[in-house]
Recover the amino acids of this structure.
C-alpha cells in the first residue's frame, strides 16, 4: 500500500470570512481525497490531514496563500493506511478549546525553546520545571521522565490546575509542552498572566522533539488523535487501539482482556450490568428530583383540556356529551361552563350546550388560571432499556392527565425527565394505587405491550389490605361490572354489566380487624379489584369511593396526607417488545 502522508499544523493569525473559507477548503480537500479535520476560528487555524503526498503539499500551498498563514509550518509523518475516516472543516470559537478570555497568542506569546535547546538543558541537568499540559490519558502513554503532570481531564481544566501549582514555581524557569505545541500557545501565556515570571513553551511540541532529537529523555509513546493512537520517537504508529467509549489508548494486553468489547468498553471503563443499572438509576433519580422540585403543576397556569367526540355520542347535544364523559362535574357546572364560553371547538368558536355534536369533532375545555393539587412524586425507577421504562408509582399520583390533573401526573413528569422523548403509559393504574407501572419509549412498543393488556395475556398480581376478615382462603369473583360510570365516576356490580373475573386469596388475617389479600385480575375492568372486594363485603382500607356497608363515596382521588388506599400492583409479567421473551417486574409493597 502506498504511504500516506500525515500533517499536523496550526497557526494563530486573524482570519476573516470564515464561512466561504470553510466551503473553499472542504471542496479543495474532497477533490483530492484528503481526510482529517480543519478547525477555523477568528484567532487562526488548526489541522490534522492525511492523504497522498502531492495532495498534502497542494493543501499547504493553498493555505499559505491566505493572509496571515504565509509562514504556516507543518509536522510530517507517514502511515501505511489512512488514519481518518472523513474530511471535516469546522468553524469554532477557538481552534483549541480553553475558555479563558484575554489570552492572545498572537499579540502576547510566551517565548519558545527549541527541541535541541530543551535536550541540552536536560543533558546538563539544569534546574527547571517541565510541565506536561496534556490530558491524563495522553500522558499515560508516554512523557518526559522529569515532567510534572498538569493533572487535567480536558484542556479546559488547565486554569483550575494552575491554581494548584506550588507557589515557589513562580520564581523558577518553567517549560510547558504538549503534542504539537498548540495547547502551550495558550497555556504558557496564561501561566505568565498568573504571576509565573519565567515561562517558555516547547516549540513544535513532542512531535517536533521526536523529529529533531529522537527518544532521549522521553519514555513511552506520544498519543495522537487519529487511528494511529500512538507514535514512537521515530514517528511510526505503535499499533495501539483506542477505546471507543472512554478514548483511552489500549495495549495488546488490554485488547485480550475479557472486559474489552469493541465499540463498547475496555478494562478502564468497563462496568458490570449491575453497575450500569445502578448508575443509570441514580442519574434518573437525580433528573426526577429536578423535575418535581417544585411540582410542575404547582405554578398557576391556564389549561386547555382536549375532548374528542366518539361515535356513541354522534347526534347528541354537547351537554349530554360533556356530562357523560366527565361525570365528576354536575350538569349545572357544565351548563355554566358552556354559558361562560369555556368550551370551544377546533376553530375557536364557543360550543353552546344545545349544539348537536358529531363523531370525530374536537373540543377544548378552557380552564381558568389555577394550580393543581399536590401529588406524591416519590417515584422509584425499577428498570429501563431502549423500549421500556418501569417505575414503582407512589400515591396519590394520576398516571395521565385527567380531571384536575394535567402537569402533576406520572406521564408529564416522566416526559420532563426523558425529554425530548415522550414516554407513554402501556396500561392504566388508579391515581390512588401504588406499584409497578410500565411506560414505553416509542409508539411501536406501546402497541405491542398494550395489545397484551387488551388480550388479557399480561400476568398481574396485586396486594390489598381489606377491612374485615374474609371467611374464605381462596375465592373467584365473577360479578359483572357496570360499563358506564355513575355519580362521581363510581361503577358497581350489575347483571347486565361487563364480564369480570378476579381470583382472590387471603394471605393474612390481622389482629386490627384487617386482612392482607392477594388479587389476580383475569380481566381489566375499571376499578375491578376494588369493586369486587367491595361487592364481597371487604372494601379496601382507605378507598374513598367504595366504602364500607356498600356505601359510595363522593371523590375518586385522595389528597396528599390522607390515609392511603391500600392497593398495590405487586407484579407484572408480559412479553418484552424487543426480546419477545416474558419479562417480570416487581415492586416491594409500601409499609
Amino acid at each position: 500500500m502506498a504511504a500516506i502522508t500525515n500533517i499536523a499544523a496550526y497557526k494563530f493569525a486573524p482570519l476573516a470570512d470564515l464561512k466561504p473559507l470553510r466551503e473553499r477548503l472542504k471542496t479543495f480537500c474532497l477533490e483530492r481525497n484528503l481526510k482529517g479535520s480543519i478547525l477555523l476560528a477568528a484567532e487562526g487555524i488548526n489541522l490534522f490531514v492525511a492523504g497522498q503526498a502531492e495532495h498534502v503539499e497542494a493543501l499547504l500551498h493553498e493555505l499559505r496563500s491566505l493572509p496571515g498563514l504565509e509562514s504556516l509550518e507543518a509536522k510530517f509523518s507517514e502511515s501505511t493506511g489512512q488514519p481518518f475516516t472523513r474530511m471535516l472543516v469546522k468553524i469554532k470559537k477557538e481552534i483549541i478549546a480553553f475558555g479563558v478570555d484575554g489570552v492572545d497568542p498572537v499579540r502576547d506569546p510566551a517565548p519558545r525553546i527549541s527541541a535541541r535547546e530543551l535536550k541540552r538543558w536536560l543533558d546538563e541537568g539544569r534546574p527547571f520545571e517541565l510541565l506536561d499540559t496534556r490530558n491524563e490519558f495522553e500522558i499515560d502513554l508516554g512523557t518526559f521522565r522529569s515532567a510534572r503532570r498538569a493533572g487535567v481531564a480536558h484542556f479546559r481544566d488547565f486554569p483550575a490546575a494552575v491554581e494548584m501549582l506550588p507557589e515557589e514555581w513562580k520564581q523558577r524557569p518553567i517549560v510547558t509542552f504538549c503534542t504539537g505545541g498548540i495547547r502551550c500557545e495558550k497555556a504558557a501565556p496564561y501561566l505568565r498572566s498568573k504571576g509565573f515570571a519565567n515561562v517558555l513553551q516547547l516549540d513544535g511540541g513532542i512531535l517536533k522533539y521526536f523529529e529533531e532529537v529522537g527518544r532521549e529523555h522521553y519514555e513511552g509513546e506520544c498519543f495522537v488523535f487519529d487511528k494511529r493512537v500512538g507514535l514512537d520517537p521515530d514517528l511510526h504508529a505503535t499499533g495501539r487501539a483506542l477505546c471507543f467509549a472512554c478514548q483511552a489508548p489500549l495495549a495488546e494486553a488490554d485488547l485480550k482482556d475479557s472486559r474489552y468489547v469493541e465499540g463498547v468498553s475496555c478494562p478502564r471503563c468497563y462496568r458490570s450490568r449491575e453497575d450500569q443499572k445502578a448508575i443509570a438509576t441514580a442519574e434518573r433519580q437525580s433528573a426526577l428530583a429536578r423535575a418535581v422540585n417544585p411540582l410542575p403543576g404547582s405554578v398557576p397556569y391556564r389549561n386547555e383540556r382536549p375532548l374528542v367526540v366518539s361515535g356513541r355520542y354522534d347526534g347528541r347535544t354537547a351537554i349530554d356529551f360533556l356530562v357523560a364523559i366527565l361525570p365528576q362535574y354536575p350538569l349545572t357546572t357544565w351548563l355554566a361552563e358552556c354559558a361562560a364560553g369555556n368550551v370551544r371547538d377546533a376553530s375557536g368558536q364557543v360550543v353552546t350546550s344545545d349544539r348537536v355534536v358529531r363523531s370525530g369533532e374536537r373540543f377544548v375545555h378552557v380552564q381558568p388560571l389555577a394550580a393543581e393539587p399536590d401529588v406524591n412524586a416519590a417515584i422509584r425507577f425499577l428498570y429501563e432499556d431502549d423500549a421500556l421504562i418501569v417505575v414503582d408509582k407512589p400515591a396519590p399520583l394520576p398516571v395521565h392527565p385527567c380531571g384536575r390533573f394535567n402537569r402533576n401526573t406520572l406521564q408529564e413528569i416522566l416526559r420532563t425527565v426523558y425529554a425530548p422523548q415522550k414516554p407513554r403509559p402501556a396500561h392504566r393504574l388508579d391515581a390512588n394505587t401504588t406499584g409497578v407501572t410500565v411506560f414505553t419509549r416509542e409508539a411501536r412498543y406501546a402497541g405491542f405491550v398494550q395489545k397484551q393488556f387488551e388480550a388479557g395475556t399480561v400476568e398481574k398480581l396485586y396486594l390489598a389490605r381489606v377491612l374485615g376478615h374474609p371467611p374464605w382462603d381462596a375465592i373467584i369473583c365473577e360479578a359483572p361490572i357496570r360499563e358506564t360510570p355513575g355519580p362521581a365516576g363510581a361503577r358497581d356490580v350489575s347483571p347486565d354489566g361487563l364480564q369480570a373475573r378476579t381470583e382472590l386469596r387471603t394471605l393474612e388475617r390481622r389482629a386490627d380487624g384487617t386482612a392482607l389479600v392477594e388479587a389476580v385480575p383475569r380481566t381489566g375492568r375499571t376499578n375491578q379489584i376494588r369493586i369486587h372486594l367491595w361487592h364481597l363485603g371487604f372494601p379496601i382500607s382507605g378507598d374513598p369511593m367504595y366504602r364500607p356497608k356498600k356505601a359510595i363515596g363522593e371523590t375518586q382521588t385522595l389528597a396528599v396526607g390522607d390515609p392511603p388506599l391500600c392497593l398495590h400492583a405487586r407484579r407484572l409479567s408480559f412479553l418484552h417488545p424487543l426480546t419477545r421473551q416474558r419479562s417480570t417486574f416487581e415492586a416491594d409493597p409500601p409499609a
Summary: The longest strand covers residues 4-12. Residues 273-291 form the longest helix (19 residues). The mean pLDDT is 91.
